[in-house]
Amino acid sequence: MDDMISMPTDPFGALSARNHTLRASLSREMHIRGLPRFEAPALALQFVLLIDEPQAHDSITLLAERFPGFEAGDRFFADRIGDLHFSWERHTEYMTYSFLAPQEGGTLFDLAPFGDVPRWMAEIPGRIIRSTQIALVKDEPPPTVIAAHFAIDDLIISDVADGQARIWSDFRLHADGFGRLLIHDKGLQGGESSQLVQRLQELGNYRKIALLGLPEAQKATPLLTGLEQRLTAITSRVAQKDADADQVLEQLSALSAELAEIMAQTRYRMSATQAYAEICRDRIRRLAVAPVRGYRSLDDFTERRLLPAMRTCDAFTRRLEDLAQRAAWTSALLRTRIDTALARRNRDLLASMDRRTGLQLRLQHTVEGLSVVAISYYALGLWHHLKEALELQGLHLPGWVDIALFPVTIITVFLGIGQIRKVKRLPSEGH
User: Distances from the Cα of 194 to the Cαs of 9, 73, 175, 284, in angstroms?
Assistant: First the structure.
């Protein structure tokens, strides 16, 4: 038995060394986004805080100091604070802090069970964009109790979760700084209560974050209108024959720079708004909302408040893209005009150079002709002096020699100059 080879307890253990670095974190991501199971009656508070990078770092540092099990790379964390269940979740630009407490008697939206939460939250960095009180009850409250906690004129009542729950809310910010959501459990089972609360909270959070794009679109719309008017004027000037291309190009460049700045400032917000709005539509579908006669429903409220804002943001984005395209077309048109003018100038310059070259060539031929005459004249003059010297020595030459020498001299000089011109041309042709 001692000689037997022991088999490894995990035959695939060696494969763990080949795990992708994100495998474990992605697996946790699939399971951590959820509230613990709870049943009515219960109370919940949730805070949504917008954060920048320094505030996110400070928040994570604070959580790591308070909870030993918290890790800096976590995007979701859950633990208990006394009798409260605490959960935290980080998103791209905000964090959520949720507190859940069982309710033993008391009134609707009673804050007493949350004890030190106000002091605890006061130390958390960030700007509160949404805070909500949630009351999950087993018995439907009478109308007088509901009227004491909600604005009746704005009251929204809907059946959700296929009729297994009913919700009340007026979506107002009350004097205590919270919005209020009342849920009547009419037969929720297992984890349906926590799923319902989570979906309702996600709907409200994503709806509020999506609406952040509306003020930016409204703020930038007058600037966009001004740029459109300026671009129209610039395009009209491009069509004018006497327009100063340099001045038009300078104006178009300045407009393009301003347009690029607006696009850089709003692109992320508009894209995020579109993404959050799509998530809101998904949550509405999953909630299986059914209207209650005589009251506005949750899906109707969401559509009436969210869709106009989304359409405004979409229209702004389309105008921005259209203006960028028009600016590109105008720029291309201006470049075409400048290129055409430059080509015309080059053509005229080449024609002028051709004329100048022709004149120089004719002048060169004239000079060469005069050079033949001048050289022949000097050659014949030298011959005349040579002839006189020979005659003084007693040598008499006949007259036909002078006559014959005259054309011979001219022809010889002409051919010599032609040969010189040919020899000078050959090196330049070789280059």
Answer: 40, 25, 27, 16
Residue 85: phi and psi, rounded to 5, are -100, 125
pLDDT tens-place string over residues 81-109: 888 999 999 988 999 999 998 876 667 88
What Å distances lie between residue 377 and 370, 373, 381, 398, 414, CA to CA?
10, 6, 6, 20, 12
The string over 321-352, giving b where at least 16 C-beta atoms fall within 10 Å of a residue's C-beta and e elsewhere, is eebbebbeebbeebeebeeeeeeeeeeeeeee
Pick the closest to residue 174 from 108, 229, 115 (CA basis).
108
User: Beta-carbon neighbour count of residue 408 at 10 Å?
Assistant: 11
* pTM value surpassing 0.85: no
Identify the H or E element spanning 180.
strand 179-185
Measured between alpha carbons, how far is 7 from 44 in angstroms, rounded to an integer? 53
Tokens of 56: 């996110």
Number of H helices, E strands in the chain: 9, 9
Condensed to tens digits (0 to 9), the pLDDT of residues 275-323 reads 999 999 998 999 999 999 888 899 888 888 888 999 999 999 999 999 9
Question: Is residue 309 within 8 Å of 214, Cβ to Cβ?
Answer: yes
Is the peptide bond prior to 41 cis by the omega test (within 30 degrees of 0)? yes
